[in-house]
Specification:
The structure is a single chain. The protein has about 60 residues and is mainly α. Helix content is about 40%, strand content about 0%. About 0% of the residues are buried.
C-alpha cells in the first residue's frame, strides 16, 4: 500500500491575454458558477472520483 496519493487531478482553464478583460471575467464567472451550482461536485461523483474536493466558490 502507498502512504501518499499517487494521482492528482490537475486541470485548468485559461485563455490568451489578447482575448481581453471581458473574456477573462466571463471565464471566471463560468468557473465560479459551475462550482457554486454543484456541477463540479456532481461530476466527481458521477465519474467515481474519490477523495477530491471542489474549491469553494469565491
Amino acid at each position: 500500500m502507498l502512504d501518499e496519493r499517487f494521482m492528482v487531478i490537475r486541470q485548468a482553464m485559461g485563455l490568451p491575454k489578447s482575448r481581453g478583460a471581458a473574456a477573462a471575467l466571463a471565464l471566471h464567472a463560468f468557473v465560479e458558477e459551475v462550482k457554486a451550482s454543484g456541477f463540479v461536485a456532481a461530476a466527481l461523483v458521477q465519474y467515481g472520483i474519490v477523495g477530491s474536493l471542489v474549491a469553494p466558490a469565491a
